[in-house]
Amino acid sequence: MLEGQANGLLFSRNLxxxxxGSASLWISCAFLAGKSIxxxxxxxxxxxxxxxxxxxxxxxxxxxxxxxxxxxxxxxNQIWFLASLPAGMIFGLLGYLSxxxxxxxxxxxxxFLTEPFVIGxxxxxxxxxxxxxxxxxxxxxxxxxxxxxxxxxxxxxxxxGGRNG
Length: 165
What we know:
Blueprint: H1 7-20, H2 23-35, H3 41-65, H4 73-76, H5 78-97, H6 105-119, H7 130-164
Helix pairs in contact: 1-7, 2-3, 2-5, 2-6, 3-5, 6-7
Protein backbone atom coordinates (compact mmCIF):
# COMPACT_ATOMS: atom_id res chain seq x y z
CA MET A 1 0.00 0.00 0.00
CA LEU A 2 2.95 2.36 0.56
CA GLU A 3 4.47 1.72 -2.88
CA GLY A 4 3.43 5.04 -4.44
CA GLN A 5 -0.29 4.29 -4.46
CA ALA A 6 -0.96 5.98 -1.16
CA ASN A 7 1.03 9.22 -1.27
CA GLY A 8 -1.18 10.91 1.33
CA LEU A 9 -0.60 8.09 3.79
CA LEU A 10 3.14 8.04 3.09
CA PHE A 11 3.33 11.82 3.52
CA SER A 12 1.45 11.61 6.84
CA ARG A 13 3.63 8.78 8.07
CA ASN A 14 6.79 10.72 7.12
CA LEU A 15 5.54 13.89 8.81
CA UNK A 16 4.59 12.18 12.06
CA UNK A 17 7.83 10.20 12.04
CA UNK A 18 9.97 13.28 11.50
CA UNK A 19 8.28 15.27 14.24
CA UNK A 20 8.14 12.41 16.74
CA GLY A 21 11.75 11.48 15.96
CA SER A 22 12.99 14.99 16.63
CA ALA A 23 15.95 14.99 19.00
CA SER A 24 14.79 18.39 20.27
CA LEU A 25 11.42 16.95 21.21
CA TRP A 26 13.01 14.06 23.08
CA ILE A 27 15.53 16.13 25.04
CA SER A 28 12.87 18.69 25.90
CA CYS A 29 11.02 15.92 27.76
CA ALA A 30 14.14 15.28 29.88
CA PHE A 31 14.48 19.04 30.38
CA LEU A 32 10.86 19.39 31.54
CA ALA A 33 11.19 16.35 33.80
CA GLY A 34 14.21 17.94 35.47
CA LYS A 35 12.37 21.26 35.70
CA SER A 36 9.56 19.54 37.61
CA ILE A 37 11.95 18.50 40.39
CA UNK A 38 12.39 21.07 43.11
CA UNK A 39 15.21 21.15 45.61
CA UNK A 40 17.15 18.09 44.40
CA UNK A 41 19.90 18.68 41.88
CA UNK A 42 21.06 15.07 41.55
CA UNK A 43 17.50 13.75 41.38
CA UNK A 44 16.77 16.01 38.41
CA UNK A 45 19.53 14.28 36.44
CA UNK A 46 18.21 10.83 37.29
CA UNK A 47 14.67 11.86 36.38
CA UNK A 48 15.94 13.13 33.02
CA UNK A 49 17.64 9.77 32.34
CA UNK A 50 14.61 7.78 33.48
CA UNK A 51 12.32 9.87 31.28
CA UNK A 52 14.37 9.20 28.15
CA UNK A 53 14.79 5.49 28.92
CA UNK A 54 11.06 5.12 29.57
CA UNK A 55 10.18 7.00 26.38
CA UNK A 56 12.53 4.81 24.32
CA UNK A 57 11.12 1.62 25.82
CA UNK A 58 7.53 2.68 25.15
CA UNK A 59 8.40 3.93 21.65
CA UNK A 60 10.11 0.72 20.56
CA UNK A 61 7.66 -1.61 22.32
CA UNK A 62 4.67 0.14 20.77
CA UNK A 63 6.29 0.11 17.34
CA UNK A 64 7.05 -3.61 17.66
CA UNK A 65 3.51 -4.42 18.82
CA UNK A 66 2.02 -2.46 15.91
CA UNK A 67 4.33 -4.17 13.43
CA UNK A 68 6.38 -1.11 12.49
CA UNK A 69 9.56 -2.54 14.05
CA UNK A 70 11.07 -6.02 14.05
CA UNK A 71 11.60 -8.05 17.21
CA UNK A 72 15.29 -7.04 17.20
CA UNK A 73 14.45 -3.35 17.60
CA UNK A 74 15.85 -3.11 21.14
CA UNK A 75 19.19 -4.72 20.31
CA UNK A 76 19.42 -2.80 17.03
CA ASN A 77 19.03 0.51 18.87
CA GLN A 78 21.20 0.02 21.95
CA ILE A 79 23.08 3.18 21.05
CA TRP A 80 19.99 5.31 21.80
CA PHE A 81 19.63 3.74 25.23
CA LEU A 82 23.30 4.49 25.94
CA ALA A 83 22.99 8.02 24.54
CA SER A 84 20.03 8.68 26.84
CA LEU A 85 22.31 8.43 29.88
CA PRO A 86 24.42 11.56 29.31
CA ALA A 87 21.63 13.39 27.44
CA GLY A 88 19.11 12.72 30.21
CA MET A 89 21.56 13.76 32.92
CA ILE A 90 22.54 16.98 31.17
CA PHE A 91 19.07 18.09 30.10
CA GLY A 92 17.44 16.98 33.36
CA LEU A 93 19.96 19.12 35.25
CA LEU A 94 19.50 22.05 32.85
CA GLY A 95 15.75 21.81 33.39
CA TYR A 96 16.23 21.94 37.14
CA LEU A 97 18.61 24.90 36.88
CA SER A 98 16.18 26.72 34.59
CA UNK A 99 13.92 27.18 37.62
CA UNK A 100 16.57 29.58 38.92
CA UNK A 101 17.91 30.81 35.58
CA UNK A 102 14.97 30.97 33.13
CA UNK A 103 17.18 31.92 30.19
CA UNK A 104 18.63 28.37 30.26
CA UNK A 105 15.46 27.43 28.38
CA UNK A 106 17.05 29.17 25.41
CA UNK A 107 19.26 26.08 25.03
CA UNK A 108 16.12 24.15 24.11
CA UNK A 109 15.07 26.93 21.76
CA UNK A 110 18.46 26.74 20.04
CA UNK A 111 17.96 22.99 19.53
CA PHE A 112 14.50 23.45 18.00
CA LEU A 113 15.62 26.38 15.83
CA THR A 114 18.71 24.67 14.39
CA GLU A 115 17.63 21.03 14.08
CA PRO A 116 15.66 21.48 10.82
CA PHE A 117 18.77 22.90 9.13
CA VAL A 118 21.23 20.42 10.64
CA ILE A 119 19.06 17.42 9.70
CA GLY A 120 18.33 18.85 6.25
CA UNK A 121 14.56 19.23 6.54
CA UNK A 122 15.05 22.78 5.34
CA UNK A 123 15.61 23.37 2.48
CA UNK A 124 15.08 19.64 1.86
CA UNK A 125 16.82 17.16 -0.41
CA UNK A 126 15.25 17.60 -3.84
CA UNK A 127 16.31 14.12 -4.99
CA UNK A 128 13.91 12.53 -2.49
CA UNK A 129 10.21 11.95 -3.22
CA UNK A 130 7.90 14.92 -2.60
CA UNK A 131 6.23 13.01 0.24
CA UNK A 132 9.52 13.04 2.14
CA UNK A 133 10.67 16.55 1.18
CA UNK A 134 7.37 18.28 1.98
CA UNK A 135 6.96 16.34 5.23
CA UNK A 136 10.47 17.39 6.25
CA UNK A 137 9.81 21.03 5.40
CA UNK A 138 6.56 21.08 7.40
CA UNK A 139 8.25 19.27 10.29
CA UNK A 140 11.10 21.79 10.13
CA UNK A 141 8.74 24.77 10.17
CA UNK A 142 6.88 23.21 13.11
CA UNK A 143 10.12 22.77 15.07
CA UNK A 144 11.13 26.36 14.32
CA UNK A 145 7.73 27.58 15.59
CA UNK A 146 8.25 25.64 18.84
CA UNK A 147 11.71 27.21 19.16
CA UNK A 148 10.27 30.70 18.72
CA UNK A 149 7.61 29.93 21.34
CA UNK A 150 10.29 28.77 23.79
CA UNK A 151 12.25 32.01 23.23
CA UNK A 152 9.10 34.01 23.96
CA UNK A 153 8.30 32.04 27.13
CA UNK A 154 11.91 32.13 28.41
CA UNK A 155 12.17 35.88 27.89
CA UNK A 156 8.80 36.43 29.53
CA UNK A 157 9.89 34.34 32.55
CA UNK A 158 13.20 36.22 32.76
CA UNK A 159 11.44 39.59 32.69
CA UNK A 160 8.89 38.42 35.25
CA GLY A 161 11.69 37.05 37.46
CA GLY A 162 13.59 40.33 37.19
CA ARG A 163 10.57 42.28 38.40
CA ASN A 164 9.97 39.92 41.33
CA GLY A 165 13.60 39.46 42.34
